[in-house]
Amino acid sequence: MKENTLNISTRQRRGRLVFIISLAVLAVALGAVFFILDLTKKEITFRKPEFDPRACVRLPAVSRVYRIQQSSIHPHNLWFGTAEGIRVLDLETFAWTRYGLDHGLLAETVSDICFAEDVPWVATWNGLQYFDSSQTRFIAPPFKRDMLGARVLALEYVANRGVYFYIDAKGLFLQEKNDTAPRRITVPGIPVADRITCIKKVDTTLYLGIEDRRLLAMDIQTGAFSERVFAWEKSPETLIWDILEHNGMLWVATSDDGVWTKGINDDTLRMHKDFPAKGAYIFSGEKDGFWCGTPFGLWRYHDNGDTWIQFVHPEADDPVDFQVFALANTPEMLWYGSMDLGAGYLTKKNVQWRPMRAGLSNPNVAAIAASDSIAWTAYGYQGGYLDKFTAKDLQYDRNYGSMAGIGDDHIQELVLCDSVLYYGSYRGFGFFDYTTRLFRHYKAEEKLPFGDITDIVCPDTGSLYLASLFGVLEFYPAADSFSAIKETEAYRITSLVYSGEILWCGTLAGGLLKVNCRERTIDTVLAEITSRVVGVCEFESRDGKPCLFAATKRNGCFIIDKSSLTVSPVGGMQKAGDHENHIMAMRKIDDTVWLGTRETGALIYTVRDESWKRLDYYDGLISDQVRSVYDTEQYIWIGCYGGLNRIDKKYAGKVLEMQ
Fold it and tell me: What is the pLDDT of residue 67?
């Protein structure tokens, strides 16, 4: 953590110059903000999900946080509105609860949250909803047809009135407490297409921040509107993000004109001359000042001396890397939400940063292991830890890192055997027994002969086989020892399948090996397969012959007759949509083989009729880059770049049959 205090007379002026020069960078950054939409005013409609969100559950990685609100009835709960659904944090236990499409949300992007007494209301990019705690579901008011499918950008609750909200390009509405449907509020002089990006209640006034830097005030009692004037010419297309009343002044955060202030009895807003950033998003008040989230990090304003102090996030190489969209204040901590660094808090007493994981730690789900009750995820080169989830409702349980003996920053393979989770990594191998809490990590060239463990098989023989950088390793858990199969040391082993004392080994570029485990020798080398073998599995062909299916990274798939060892290429992949021919993962599931691809989702080969099917983003996958596949008796788990999917097997079968 670094704390930079700026001297007003020198460093602030220099900082302001740097920020002005960085205006082009800011424009790009603002483009990532949730409701900076294209300026053509065209109406945008959202495609309805074409999948069953309860049978195909999506768990995106949380990175972009738009709003943090503290529950009015349960102050120990913080609600986080994100681009990936809603996360609720219990401040007493630090446990997270996830709400997504499978809980009735109309869209995963949640731009705003408010509490109408004890009922949470959320603004989504597909409509307005409230949370019914008795059903644990989000419910939408009965909108008229012309109000359906539009994004809600801002909302605010006013006691004894209801929830005011703005629907993009459709205007301002009020959902009153006892009304079944919302009614439109006419704003004088403001076309419905002019976006209201901020709705904020201050005492008996409801402020509306409107694009092109216009600020209107509505008297809640009378409904009369008046406008607050900005002192000089505005920048083009300026947006108002937040409003704060503090110390007898009204403070206004704008997108690219910084912070403006005015006295409560004054109608004219003036730019704060010493504000050090070129734009602001959010305020959070303190007795002696306030916090301000900006496109250039977190700032603290102090009334005494009219000074600003910047707090630089330790993971941000540059201030522009830490865009603070959301803030929430508790007595000891300031909670933040950002564009790329997720959520976390800053301890105010000793000034320490603490990131909070609201689900997946990283978007690159490179490996999965699961049972009927637990699911685990690892993140390849972004890793160094594992995340644990409940399988039934896909709720985040906890994170396992160095405290659980996980000692590698590149975990690329997971296998669950009973209650023991084995993992393979770039530099080592280890296991974690989550019932006894026993863990062990083996580093390469210490006890582990070789590293870069890319596959693990657990036959019922008392030992495990590991695919390593230099051949096959056998691990004996009871003896806590390893041995190498010497004849394989000339090969980079990438995938394994065990079949009755025969180990079939895919290699990086040396073909497919048939290894006799008893003799510890290579019986055969199938050199026809020259690309990296991503996965290999056993199956019976349509005419009942025992065969192998081998998937390569760039050269397609092959079928190997186990008796004759003839190798035949599998056709039809391009018809299924794999135009790039880049396979990243493979797993045999029942009588099908599932392939994860880089650009075209999951390709499914059905053995009985030698046909190809496809599941992609439009079928419910987080993205079309599939990095890992796993299955249990009930579910198929798919790890994508961007998150995790849990698909019911019966549902997957129905979807594939319809194609």
Answer: 97
Backbone φ, ψ for residue 365 (5° rounding):
-80, 90
How many other β-carbons are positioned within 10 Å of the β-carbon of residue 606? 14
| Best CA proximity match to 407, nearest among 378, 388, 428 | 428
> For residues 90 and 74, is the Cβ–Cβ distance under 8 A?
no
Question: With a threshold of 0.85, does the pTM exceed it?
Answer: yes
The contacts of residue 66 (CB under 8 Å, 6+ apart) are 34, 81, 82, 83, 109, 110, 111, 112, 325, 326, 337
CB 376 within 8 A of CB 391: no
Let me know if 325 is exposed, middle or buried by CB neighbors in 10 A (0-12, 13-18, 19+): buried
Q: Is the pLDDT of residue 443 over 70?
A: yes
User: What sign results for the dihedral spanned by CA atoms 537, 540, 542, 545?
Assistant: positive
Determine how many CB atoms are found less than 10 A away from the CB of residue 451.
20
Tell which residue, 187, 277, 204, has the closest CA to residue 241: 277
The CA distances from residue 470 to 367, 449, 585, in Å, are 22, 9, 21
Q: Which of 476, 433, 471 is nearest to 455 (CA)?
A: 471
Q: What is the pLDDT of residue 133?
A: 93
What local confidence, expressed as pLDDT, does residue 364 receive? 93
Q: In sequence order, which residues have a C-beta less than 8 Å from that of residue 478 and are 6 or more positions away?
A: 462
What pLDDT shows up at residue 8? 33
* Interatomic CA distance for residues 550 and 391, integer angstroms: 29
205-226 burial, b at 16+ Cβ within 10 Å, e below that, comes to: bbbbbbbebbbbbbebeeeebe
Residue 31's pLDDT is: 44
CA 411 to CA 400: how far, in whole Å? 12
pLDDT in tens, 533-558: 999 999 998 888 999 999 999 999 99
Is 619 in a helix, a strand, or coil?
A: helix
pLDDT one-digit tens code per residue, 114-131: 999 889 999 999 999 999
Residues 338, 614 contacting (CB under 8 angstroms)? no
Is residue 26 predicted with pLDDT exceeding 70? no
CA dist 236 and 227 (Å) reads 19
Q: Which amino acid is at 157?
A: Y
Res. 403: pLDDT tops 80: no
